[in-house]
Design brief:
Blueprint lengths: L3 E5 L1 E2 L2 E2 L1 H17 L3 E7 L7 H4 L6 E6 L8 H15 L3 E5 L2 H14 L3 E5 L1 E8 L6 E12 L4 E5 L7 E5 L16 E3 L33 E5 L6 H14 L2 E4 L1 H5 L20 E5 L5 H4 L7 E6 L12 E4 L2 H15 L2
């Protein structure tokens, strides 16, 4: 009771990476609170297929709901599984990915439980809270931290009185780390019919299409990112040429995206994706806090900027003072000569 729960998404019998990232964070939160980490997964034909992808992250109890009609995902049965299970288990925290599924499922569950939900969190912490209006003190609340007002501020949201404290978290924000390959957690296989009425299966998925990602920005070992200082869409072409030589991917700051120089799905930061490459080359990026939140955990950070006092230079391992037009072509020429 009052444990930390993570809802695990699946594609067939494969557990989503964002769910494994949340299991890693959930394990840390549960340990800090002195409670168990529980996980939920629902699908068709998944018994014996998903346990080894979930338990090693430190899961103490795994609920596997396996029945026809639970995959592909539809709203009604998955909502009833979580709502009815939570009425039994009374968890204090539930985490799920800020994905297409999470954005559909989270609000349905929180509305049914009248518990509240914070969407698109970038950080989760445990802390105390003093309500100045009522004078009440609350221990060990979930600090749900996310960008607000277009990413211009970072808001910390708490839910003092209602349970479950629910949050969705963006993919790539949390680090995915196996706790113990042989972690011994309990696995239960509930009777789905006790949690899901037959009427929930009226909606059938007749056709399903998944479009593959155009790039692998989140998983790239080298990322070349451009900001407003790149100057133009044409100059971004130089970044793509450099990325080709380095076998990396191209990202961007919000300013460059807003300028129309590059697609939104390459935006890095609080309102974009979070990356953890071995090498991050920031070209013409000033380094506002919103952007730093999406790349500050990179292995080596190289800054190319005309401003030696740019904020990003404070966290950079190497700083090249110069314009993108001047520096990047030289890098391309060098790597072309030395990659033969």
């Amino acid at each position: 009771m009052n444990n930390v729960f993570v809802y695990c998404e699946i594609e067939g019998t494969k557990v989503a990476e964002v769910s494994q990232e949340l299991l890693t964070k959930g394990r840390k939160l549960a340990s800090q609170l002195g409670v168990e980490l529980n996980a939920i997964v629902a699908g068709t034909g998944i018994k014996g297929q998903v346990e080894s992808q979930i338990l090693p992250y430190g899961v103490d109890k795994l609920f596997v709901f396996d029945a026809e009609g639970l995959f592909p995902y539809t709203s009604a049965p998955h909502t009833d599984i979580l709502v009815n299970l939570f009425k039994e288990e009374n968890p204090q925290i539930c985490l799920m990915g800020a994905t297409v599924i999470g954005r559909d499922l989270g609000p349905r569950v929180s509305s049914s439980l009248t518990s509240g939900l914070t969407a698109d969190c970038t950080q989760l912490e445990i802390g105390d809270f003093d309500d100045k209006k009522t004078g009440q003190h609350f221990d060990n609340l979930l600090y749900q931290i996310r960008p607000a007002f277009g990413g211009n501020i970072v808001a910390t949201i708490v839910n003092p009185e209602n349970r479950t404290q629910m949050a969705t978290v963006r993919e790539g924000v949390m680090k995915r780390e196996i706790l113990d390959e042989n972690y011994k957690g309990e696995v239960v296989y509930p009777d789905v019919a006790k949690y899901v009425p037959e009427v929930d299966f009226v909606v059938k998925v007749l056709d399903r299409h998944i479009e593959q990602a155009k790039h692998n920005l989140k998983g790239a070992p080298i990322v070349i990112a451009g900001g407003f200082g790149v100057g133009s869409k044409e100059n971004f072409d130089q970044l793509f040429k450099l990325a080709k030589e380095l076998h990396g991917e191209v990202g961007a700051s919000r300013a460059a995206v807003d300028a129309g120089w590059i697609d939104h799905d390459r935006q890095i930061g609080q309102t974009g994706v979070t990356v953890h490459p071995k090498v991050y080359i920031a070209c013409g990026i000033s380094g506002q806090i919103q952007h730093l939140a999406g790349m500050q955990d990179s292995g080596i950070i190289i800054s190319i900027n005309t401003d030696p006092e740019a904020p990003i230079n404070k966290i950079a391992d190497y700083v090249i003072v110069g314009s993108v037009e001047e520096v990047v072509p030289k890098l391309i020429k060098y790597y072309k000569q030395n990659n033969k």
